[in-house]
Amino acid sequence: MTGISKRFGPVQALSDVTLAVRVGTVHALVGENGAGKSTLMKILAGVYQADTGDIEIHGRRQVFTNPAQALEAGVSMIYQELDLAEHLTVAENIYLGAEPQGALPCMISHGRMISQAQELSRQYSFDIRPSAKVEDLAMGDCQIVEILKALRRKASILVMDEPTSSLSESEAKRLFEVVRRLRSEGLAIIYISHRLEEIIDLADEVSVLRDGRLVHSEPASAMDIPKIVHHMVGRELTDFFPSRAARIGDVLVQVNGLSSEAGIDNVSFEVRRGEIVGMAGLVGAGRTEVARAIFGVDKRTAGQVVLENQELSIASPADAIHSSIALLTEDRKRTGLCLELPCSWNITLPNLEQIGFRPFIKPGRENRIAGDVGSQIAVKWSSPRAPASSLSGGNQQKLLIARWLLADSKFLIFDEPTRGIDVGAKAEVYLLLNRLAEEGKGILFISSELPELFGVADRILVMRRGRLVGNLKTKETTPEEVMHLAAVEEKT
Ligand SMILES: Nc1ncnc2c1ncn2[C@@H]1O[C@H](COP(=O)(O)OP(=O)(O)OP(=O)(O)O)[C@@H](O)[C@H]1O
Ligand SMILES: [Mg+2]
Fold first, then answer.
1. Which helix (H) or strand (E) holds 269?
2. In ligand 1, which atom is closest to the CA atom of 41?
């Protein structure tokens, strides 16, 4: 890609970017939220057209006006904001547009489609049921479907935009094996991730984007994490995990014997005032389902939630919000944001009392409040009135955080709050969690990244197959012990 520039209205997303990716290598693309990584790759994949610049593949100049042309030329992309047909099955999604033919022309052989999907996922050692409906899948499984869909296409250039953001460490490891295998088969792989350890582990070359410009490109062997961070943010980053003197108070929340229709089985734990309780587990272990059962999304079949010694009767998320509980969902696209609506609306949505009397709201006040809380965590937007869809992935995540900051709840559940946000912003989120804890709130912090759980949480709960299998003081345990508890059944 040579001299690529792209502007969205007032935002210059890319300026004169030149990137060369070799056959048989993994090329990592890193940069802060909004640096232009996804935009650059969407230009390569034919989603956007560059204002200036050229694309050459194997020495041939290419002009893509739509994704089908890019696919034809061998470019396959796994999008950061997963884009599956929810009402179709896993197999139907994987073979969308390339369905195996049935006995008669114009007919689809569902049987063959299922068996091919089964074979494909076995070939790459993923464990997924081809006949499951996508809408019933957890986030991590959707990511695996998206990956299989891209693998099925037999591309020569594979772009992976944050493929591991919803995967736990063991699934991510499996993906790395796949990536290495594809590399040895001669694919060129462009790999975007905010998990910098992965980059060091996997990449042959690293290119860094900052504010829409390519600022650095070097073999990975010459790079380490501090160096990458330095190029990304233009300064050193110390104290990644802020230290804090936890002042843990009396019991704030008790979850007793919680079971739900979604498969949670007799889960009990407490969260104290000022305490950050982490929750670990593999994809599908039931962590999100615990959050959903507490928040009134999934129907509870047994158990109680007690807040400040009062049993809550929560039948819906609205009840939960009124009971001073917040839930930042892991899936910003499906259950988090209203992407077409302005950023400010997205922030104030559960907090309308703050901006007027029903049924009237004051737009000026709304913009001001949203602007204030947005700037507290440095959301990068052209204005609070811009639609949420115009923000980069990481900045969309920050919108969700801003929403729950505004709500000022007593008990906050954060499900993968740092999904897709850059190192600098992660450090800010950790600080924020600390600040909320210092204000005496209780926090349940669900994460697939063990380092951040160990860096931030006072205690770590471990889920496995819908059950709570560990409740450990962070200071008295190790990542190995947590991994072992989370995965032990898989090995036997
Ligand atoms: N469709 C769009 N309309 C308007 N602005 C856009 C659009 N897509 C991207 N932008 C803007 O372009 C800039 C680059 O965004 P991009 O999504 O490429 O960032 P990114 O590097 O992928 O960030 P992240 O790590 O958060 O995913 C951002 O300022 C973003 O707001
Ligand atoms: Mg992006």
1. strand 267-272
2. 18
Query: How does pLDDT run along the chain (492 residues), one tens digit per residue?
Result: 999 999 998 889 999 999 999 999 999 999 988 899 999 999 999 999 999 999 999 999 999 999 999 999 999 999 888 889 999 999 999 999 888 888 888 888 899 999 999 999 998 888 889 999 999 888 788 888 988 998 898 889 999 999 888 888 877 888 898 899 999 999 999 999 988 888 999 999 999 999 899 999 999 999 998 898 889 887 666 667 777 777 899 999 999 999 999 999 999 999 999 999 999 998 889 999 999 999 999 999 999 999 999 999 999 999 999 999 999 998 888 889 999 999 999 999 888 888 877 778 888 888 899 999 888 888 889 899 999 999 988 899 889 989 998 888 999 999 999 888 888 888 888 988 998 999 999 999 999 888 899 999 999 999 999 999 999 999 999 999 998 898 875 444
Residue 9 alpha carbon, nearest atom of ligand 1: 4
pTM: 0.80
Q: Is the CB of 140 under 6 A from ligand 1?
A: no
CATH architecture of 2-233: 3-Layer(aba) Sandwich (3.40)
Q: What's the CATH code, domain 251-491? A: 3.40.50.300
What's the gap in Å between 426 CA and the centre of ligand 1? 18
Rounded distance, CA 171 to CA 153, Å? Answer: 21
Test site for ligand 1: of 8, 209, 211, 399, most ligand atoms within 8 A of the Cβ = 8
Separation CA 264–CA 303 (nearest Å): 11
Contact partners, residue 422, CB within 8 Å, separation at least 6 = 31, 32, 33, 194, 232, 233, 394
CA 136–ligand 2 middle distance (angstroms) = 25
Numbered ranges of CATH 3.40.50.300 in the chain: 2-233, 251-491
Contact yes or no for 235/423 (Cβ under 8 A): no
**Distance, CA 335 to ligand 1 centroid (Å)?**
21
